[in-house]
Amino acid sequence: MKILVTGGAGFIGSNFIHYMFEKYSNYQIVNLDKLTYAGNLENLKDVEENPNYKFVRGDIADPELVNNLIEEEKPDAIVNFAAESHVDRSILEPDAFINTNVVGTHNLLKAAFGNGKIRFHHVSTDEVFGSLGPNDPAFNESTPYDPHSPYSASKAASDHLVRAYFHTFNLPVTISNCSNNYGPYMFPEKLFPLFITNLIEGKKVPLYGDGRNVRDWLHVRDHCRAIALIIHKGKIGETYCVGGACEKTNKEITYKILELMGKGEEMIEKVADRLGHDRRYAIDFRKIKIELGWEPETIFEDGLKNMIEWYKNNEIWWRKIKSGEYQEYYEKNYARR
Ligand code: NAD
Ligand code: TYD
Q1: 281 catalytic, yes or no?
Q2: Using CB atoms within 10 A as the burial measure, which of 38, 73, 79, 146 is most buried?
Q3: pLDDT at 193
């Protein structure tokens, strides 16, 4: 199988490429990534020389580039990870979110359709469903969309376009709406890696508002396994909700990280809340469990311990990101297509 992965230099995309080569070493993967601030080819150093791997630097929002690449490569499937993904950035600068998440996804859909109806999997988020109250049932595949941030609104728009291409043009699509991921190669602007790396650096950790917002955490490898399963066995036209059965408040996460890193609560800095901060996300993953036999495997405390170890052992990786040095590397080495 030949797969075009978009956004493969980011957190989940790079974990997915590693996972796929581990499980399906004879597959070919073409990675199309713009290398925005969140894309980092150092995440893929160990697959660079693999003859089954090819990297192309380019923007999914460029329709000609996308169409030419798909025409040339003729992939059997496209897995779309490419996105602007950070809620706080979407509040400050929403334009890039519309361009990549909406226009970019649409370009991929058009090219998938125009080049022989290529199998298309779209990686989406639980944030499209909005925010839950403390006693509401978890999100599932029939929860109405109610996105609150420019990020989640742009992902919701892209999900609607993917479904429209299935219903209108018979494009063979699937969608996964996953809860918050954690694990290696996670960009240190997000809660887990920001807090872990700040503590290694002796800095405080900025906890938003009252710290009682709830997220449902899933280890990134479990997410990658779910996507691989959907690509191979998912029912065309269907959506699968993927979650960790691991609801935790940000305060709980913070205290756990502090405990595992041997630090005290004086390292917490309470900061102003995020605008429009969603209170609670939770996923009911019964459908993918029943239909495809998927469920989370990583126990949260084990996954978190491994993640902390990974950041301790890969200081060069995240220090280059925090200093901005990683971008100089690929500006020198990789031309834009
Ligand atoms: P990320 O920000 O770490 O990586 C995004 C990647 O996309 C980067 O490599 C970036 O360079 C690339 N990219 C951005 N704009 C592009 C463009 N216009 N053209 C080509 N490449 C572009 O994001 P992530 O956390 O790995 O998330 C990947 C996908 O999974 C996103 O679609 C996101 O919505 C979804 N998702 C993320 C989470 C999570 O917890 N991180 C949870 C559920 C779903
Ligand atoms: P984040 O990792 O940005 O994921 P998302 O907002 O997409 O769920 O944030 C996870 C939670 O952590 C969210 O409730 C906001 C909170 N948070 C903080 O309290 N401090 C921080 O510095 C960050 C980045 C997030």
Answers
A1: no
A2: 79
A3: 98
Q: Is the CB of 82 under 6 A from ligand 1?
A: yes
Average pLDDT of span 80-100: 98
Task: Tell me which amino acid residue 47 is.
Answer: V
| Confidence bin at 121 (pLDDT 50/70/90) | very high
In angstroms, the CA 65 to CA 56 distance is 10
Q: Which of 53, 151, 165, 330 is catalytic?
A: 151
88 is catalytic: no
Q: How far is the CA of 262 from the centre of ligand 1 (A)?
A: 32
- Looking at residue 227, its pLDDT comes to 99
- Render pLDDT for 9-37 as a digit per residue (tens, 0 to 9): 999 999 999 999 999 999 999 999 999 99
Of 126, 216, 222, 247, which is the active-site residue? 126
How many whole angstroms from 191 Cα to the centroid of ligand 2? Answer: 5
**Where do the domains of the chain lie, and which CATH numbers do they carry?**
2-183+217-245+278-300 (3.40.50.720)
Does residue 255 have an active-site annotation?
no
Say what the pLDDT of residue 337 is. Answer: 57
- Ligand 2: which of 181, 247, 250, 281 to mutate, most ligand atoms within 8 Å of CB? 250
Give the integer Cα–Cα distance in Å for 44 and 187: 14
Percent with pLDDT over 70 in the chain: 97
Pocket of ligand 2 contains residue 91 by CB under 6 Å: no
